[in-house]
Amino acid sequence: MNLFERQEAVRRRSRRLVWLFAAAVLGVVLAVDAVAWLLFVGVFGQPGATAPVLMAATVLTLLLIAGASLYRSLGLRQGGAAVAQALGGTPVPADTQDANLRRLRNVVEEMAIAAGMPMPRVFVLEREAGINAFAAGFTPADAAVAVTRGALDRLNRSELQAVVAHEFGHIVNGDIRLNLRLVGWLFGILVVGIAGRELLKASHGSDRKALPLLLLALALILIGAVGLLFARLIKAGISRQREYLADASAVQYTRDPDALVGAFCKIGGCPQGGRLEQPEAEEVSHMLFEDGIGFSRWMATHPPLLDRIRALRPGFRPAQWEEVLARRGLPPPSGLEEDHALGLAGPPPLPPEEAALPVAAPALAAGVGQWREGDVERARAVAAAIPEVLDRAARDREEAVLLLYGLLLSARPAVRERQCFELRARSSEAVVGQARDYAERLAGLHAALRLPLAMIALSTVKQRHRAELEAIADLCFALSHADGGVDFLHYGLAQLLRNELAESAAPGEAWRRPRLKLSQVEAEVALLLSVMAQAGHAAPAEAQRAFLAGLQAVLPQSAARYQPPVGGLALLDEAWPRLDALLPKGKLMLVEALVAAALHDGRLTVAEGELLRIVCAILHAPLPAALCPGRRD
User: Could you tell me if 329 and 452 lie in one domain?
Assistant: First the structure.
């Protein structure tokens, strides 16, 4: 199953969720109607008022559920960081010197680099001694990954990496958006019980007139328990199979099933297990790495740990699990001490640049959202190869913005002067000078390091307020349109940064567009293929052959011609949202076309590979770095 098929499966589950939610709402409404009927017929003795009473009860209940769901959903609009902070999460600074926090941030950065994805915000639930984690957000651009203090202290680096890889599986597959939607909707079902508890507080007293109010409060609490049961059943039905899939994704990413099994065993041997102490744990139980509530069997949101272990290691025996459980009384292990004992602390060296290799276009396109053996190790090497001065700048709140501007400055003097004019008009001469300085430092940087460096800096920039993010996004747009001579690599990077900043400032808004078919975006596909072909080939004849190779892969019946835009790349501005809105099958075919155009001559250079990764990232189709072998141009 490729990335687009997994994302389509999530959409199908989302549609199923609508029906399950509707059934739950119907059950709660019928229960409220039954209580209202009993009160007015059995207590007040007014059977003639049954019809209007039932109508009023139904309408009021529906309004209460809808209003509560809307209120909770609006409260989640800030994305994954808001969820992590609501659970008591503490942000991990990009420049932290704490060994445990540094290790966690390094692991998340390496996973993001390996996947070709934006760097999520990183949080630690300091007050949670259990071993658990979760990912939350609407899109990868506003995603957050949080781990408990217990996980941070007790897991070694490989185990922590496996847990983070599991959460990246949820991000890549699109589960996180469904998870947030589930939180908002289910709150509406639970609000009836909350209303009953509040009414019970108001009905205290010995006055006989308070008796009906007391009975109504108790009835609503009982109905709330029914709503809670529905909510837990829905979460269990939606979550269990996704956990097996995310476990499989984690193993695919790390190629180390023993690391994930080790994490499961440490959860089993931890007195707290994966339990969260926060009262909000009930709302987010379906998001967690392991069940954080303590339910079992048909009420559990996660499969039993032993079943998850045996799915990865079929030979694992129940007797071995009993040995794991018997270790609960022993002193907890230290993850950092295990790292040093196992030699897991240091990153590998960056391998030498490879010559361009022949790669099959279908295999490369099928690699979207899929990782190969060694991807994470290569990502560690890439992260370690970033020069220290640039790495420090990417983690500094003020310097990260200037570094991004430096990444967008063209190497052509005339174009750079125009960009500096735009930068000066929106900021200051000091900013222009610092951006120029970073551009000079970046001039000799290996092509494969520019995008990872930009993503690390972007994760630092995203911690700013919405107004600042919007201003930075506008400046990125201005730099990419300052002159018609801006090349596609700088334009594409600016477009990617702008999209990521916009989605981070307003999570979820970009996903409300209607889905489109390939036949509806033929002109946009031809335009993008023309630009890609021109960017990768200096000779017009070669560029035309690359364009035709791509067009044949996506729209074989099309009569479109190779026509790169004259006078700048602004025509692509309106094409990106429509191309990003393609149905999964159409987007896969578009990626195959882009790969076919890049590989029409049988080889892929580092520069071509990075450009391909940038374009795929704009289309929310992450292409791992390891799938782009090549040499520096």
Answer: no
